């Protein structure tokens, strides 16, 4: 808010007046709730203090807001959200206190803690948290519900019958004398053994999983109040708390500062744990710098599409690129930054900017890339101005402008899926701008948006940009020539490093999403690993796969090849090497075929049915842009009959089997996320 209140600092000499005023108000409200209104009227001194505190808060809020309005800033802070948007302003204390109780219960119940952490690792892993994750965090939600059951942060509700004459009998038992106030003590309601059973006092989130929660009797769980005046921030609070828990547990391990800590409660208008101090330790593999962002493992996320196939080196007059992003929650912005990094790596002048910045600024000579999301079919908050502007342009006013559009969306919004990127594409074309590539798209419901985007860059975007610069597709393929030679192999595959043993591999993700794996390696004795260092892993394709590839290519294990390339390539060139070694160590045989490879294979197909089959794979790929679903080159070679195939099959993406791993050691075992440019669909069995 641009103002420091020191409300959380224990070291502050004196709390900010705001803290005192709030505490005064909360205490008074609590006391007032418990006494008759006529009696409150007589509390002159307390009432005067209450009014003073109220007046102080109003004045302070007015000052803070006026200051920001007089000095506008682009900061993404809460104050801007409140001043410029409609975000709700209440409920932060109740939600904060809920989180504090949750942390307490998790630390006090290690099994529950482990289950929650496992869910967050499985669903979110090291990815930036996205809206799609939230629905899948069902155990986390159950933990929040259970914490609110045992410790409803608003612990008392006051209700009063209205418009009644005469006595009322509640539950056939209790008679009320007219409009009398009743206090509902949630602490008791929520621990009623007749509803919650003998273990009502235990923290047991299983009872709050959706299927069990739905079976609870009505009114058994009321942390958000009652009837028409119940909490309007209920959904918001859950969403906010789920996000906070996911981000916190993604990055930190928590433990009691005092292992003997016994829960005691501090109460004002809401309740919170008293004197609860916690140790938070960065989780293995988490970069301390990433804790200031909504993401972990930044290295993996920001990794641009590889420039190993840089056909632009040596090209003069590269057109500058501007990448505009329409983004509310950061996904499209992340993609824009990723593309900008890739472009800079390739020697382009490139910047990323918010979509609204494109208003009135599109011009020939600059390639404009648009990456945008939609929200209920509407533009993002940083793109609405641009959409208004471009909708109102006169015909042909964008003649000469060259553009590319990539859409971020989620198929669950069926009627408005990709509406804004589609609209941007249509309007740009309508006004005379020229698209240099077919529109790309990612579907968040399909899983990893960044992977879909990086794939699109490699197989569609960069080849089209090459075209734009007069570099004809195929140049890079032709640049790589392979011949079977009758020489002794002199090339030795990289043998540096040590052999590690894969101790455990298991899938962290559900079957329907793109797989992520947990991999545990044991390093040989005497090999230490320092926290924060990089580990380079050189996986091998399994022998069985290599043999299949040799057969598909009509090669024998001891055939010797020589590669020649005029472009830079990580493949070993100019030395005779065993075909087996090339296929084992240098090519990822599991990688899905790229669009370009599919097209080339289709053109080499001898049988019409095979051609059709490849066409339909290409169509499906173009429609969904989900490369991971495509078969690998090897699978295709085994399935279709190809004539005149250059050998090995043409590959623009000279992808190597070099995976960089961000790793961390725990005792002698290693735990890490496997980060690779194109994730293998099966984990290599040896390292
Ligand atoms: C865990 C977090 C929260 C809890 C436990 C909670 C609980 C409650 C309860 C019990 C009430 C009813 C009070 C009564 O009947 O006397 C209430 C009302 C209300 N809450 Fe929340 N709340 C939470 C978070 C939020 C958030 C995040 C917001 C705003 C985004 C919010 C906005 C409101 C508002 C505006 C009312 C008054 C509704 C009315 O009087 O019509 N609350 N809340
Ligand atoms: C409230 C809401 C509404 C959405 N509406 C749409 C929509 O109409 N069409 C669509 O394709 N995607 C829709 N999505 C999905 C988002 O566009 C998608 O998650 C996108 O990756 C978010 O991008 P951003 O992080 O750049 O804002 C919606 C998401 C949310 C949370």
From TrEMBL:
Record flagged with keyword Oxidoreductase: yes
Record-annotated membrane-spanning stretches: 657-679
Name this protein carries in UniProt: Flavodoxin-like domain-containing protein
Cofactor(s), names only, from the UniProt record: FMN; heme; FAD
Keyword entries, A-Z: FAD, Flavoprotein, Heme, Iron, Membrane, Metal-binding, Monooxygenase, NADP, Oxidoreductase, Transmembrane, Transmembrane helix, Transport
One Pfam family here: FAD_binding_1
Entry's family note: Belongs to the cytochrome P450 family.
Domain of life: Eukaryota
Domain Flavodoxin-like, first and last residues per copy: 321-461
């Amino acid at each position: 808010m641009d103002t420091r209140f020191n409300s959380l600092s224990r070291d502050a000499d004196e709390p900010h007046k705001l803290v005192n005023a709030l505490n005064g108000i909360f205490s008074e409200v609590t006391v007032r709730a418990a006494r008759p209104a006529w009696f409150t009227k007589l509390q002159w001194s307390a009432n005067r203090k209450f009014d003073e505190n109220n007046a102080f808060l109003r004045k302070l809020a007015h000052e803070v807001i006026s200051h920001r309005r007089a000095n506008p800033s682009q900061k993404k802070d809460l104050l801007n959200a409140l001043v410029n948007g409609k975000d709700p302003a209440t409920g932060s204390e109740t939600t904060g206190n809920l989180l504090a109780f949750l942390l307490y219960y998790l630390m006090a119940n290690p099994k529950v803690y482990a289950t929650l952490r496992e869910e967050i690792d499985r669903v979110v892993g090291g990815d930036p948290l996205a809206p799609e994750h939230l629905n899948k965090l069902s155990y986390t939600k159950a933990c929040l519900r259970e914490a609110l059951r045992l410790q409803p942060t608003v612990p008392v509700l006051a209700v009063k019958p209205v418009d009644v004459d005469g006595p009322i009998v509640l539950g056939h038992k209790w008679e009320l004398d007219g409009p009398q106030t009743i206090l509902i003590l949630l602490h008791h309601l929520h621990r009623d053994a007749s509803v919650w059973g003998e273990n009502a006092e235990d923290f047991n989130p299983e009872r709050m999983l959706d299927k069990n929660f739905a079976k609870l009797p009505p009114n058994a769980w009321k942390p958000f109040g009652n009837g028409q005046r119940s909490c309007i921030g209920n959904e918001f609070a859950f969403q906010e708390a789920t996000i906070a828990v996911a981000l916190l547990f993604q990055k930190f391990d928590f433990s009691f500062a005092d292992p003997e800590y016994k829960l005691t409660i501090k109460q004002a208008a809401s309740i919170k744990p008293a004197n609860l101090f916690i140790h938070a330790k960065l989780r293995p593999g988490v970069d301390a710098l990433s804790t200031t962002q909504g993401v972990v493992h930044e290295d993996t996320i920001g990794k641009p599409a590889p420039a190993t196939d840089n056909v632009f080196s040596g090209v003069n007059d590269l057109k500058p690129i501007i990448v505009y992003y329409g983004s509310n929650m950061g996904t499209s912005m992340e993609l824009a930054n990723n593309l900008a990094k890739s472009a800079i790596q390739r020697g382009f002048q490139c910047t990323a900017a918010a979509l609204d910045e494109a208003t009135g600024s599109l011009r020939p000579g600059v390639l404009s890339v648009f990456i945008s999301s939609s929200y209920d079919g509407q533009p993002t908050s940083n793109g609405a101005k641009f959409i208004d502007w471009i909708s109102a342009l006169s015909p042909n006013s964008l003649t000469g402008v060259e553009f590319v559009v990539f859409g971020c969306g989620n198929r669950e919004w069926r009627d408005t899926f990709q509406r804004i990127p589609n609209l941007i594409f249509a309007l740009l074309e309508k006004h005379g701008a020229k698209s240099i590539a077919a529109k790309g798209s990612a579907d968040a419901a399909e899983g990893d948006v960044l992977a879909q985007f990086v794939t699109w860059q490699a197989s569609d975007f960069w080849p089209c940009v090459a075209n734009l610069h007069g570099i004809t597709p195929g140049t890079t393929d032709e640049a790589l020539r392979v011949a079977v030679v009758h020489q002794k192999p002199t090339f030795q595959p990289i043998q540096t490093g040590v052999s590690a043993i894969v101790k455990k591999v298991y899938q962290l993700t559900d079957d329907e999403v793109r797989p992520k794996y947990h991999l545990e390696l044991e390093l040989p004795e005497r090999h230490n690993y320092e926290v924060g260092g990089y580990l380079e892993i050189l996986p091998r394709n399994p022998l069985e796969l290599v043999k299949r590839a040799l057969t598909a290519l009509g090669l024998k294990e001891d055939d010797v090849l020589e590669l020649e390339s005029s472009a830079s390539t990580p493949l070993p060139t100019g030395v005779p090497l065993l075909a087996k070694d090339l296929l084992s160590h240098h090519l990822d045989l599991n990688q899905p075929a790229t669009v370009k490879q599919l097209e080339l294979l289709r053109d080499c197909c001898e049988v019409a049915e095979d051609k059709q089959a490849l066409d339909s794979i290409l169509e499906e790929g173009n429609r969904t842009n989900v490369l991971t679903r495509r078969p690998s080159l090897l699978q295709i070679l085994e399935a279709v009959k190809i004539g005149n195939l250059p050998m090995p099959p043409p590959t623009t993406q000279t992808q190597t089997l070099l995976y960089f791993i961000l790793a961390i050691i725990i005792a002698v075992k290693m735990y890490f996320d496997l980060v690779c440019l194109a994730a293998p669909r099966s984990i290599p069995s040896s390292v």
